Amino acid sequence: MYWTDWGDHSKIERAGMDGLDRTIIVRTNLTWPNGLALDYDELRLYWVDAYTKKIEYSDLDGQNRRVRFYTLNALWGFCFYIPKVNQLLGIQNFN
Hints:
The chain is globular and about 35 Å long. It is mainly β. Helices cover 0% and strands 53% of the residues. The protein has strands at 2-5, 11-14, 23-26, 33-39, 44-49, 54-59, 66-75, 78-82, 90-93. It has one domain (2-93). The strands form two sheets. The protein has a six-stranded antiparallel sheet, with no helix packed on it. A three-stranded antiparallel sheet has the order 1-2-3, with no helix packed on it.
């Protein structure tokens, strides 16, 4: 299982379903991590940082961390984002 922890030392952690083998997998450059999603096909963990407004992902063990989107805002079922710095605005319809 995976979860996030906000506070003075924000982090993303994982453990077995029995609670054993607890491990911090992401501990740097996080403020308000939430919205975890697992991609089993690509073996990736995705998350949103509500403070930095970024959607990021890494391997399931926290390695190979990348920014997927720099989000700008969500409004009326649309997510406005920039795929990478200095690129055109993208719009995703979630309706």
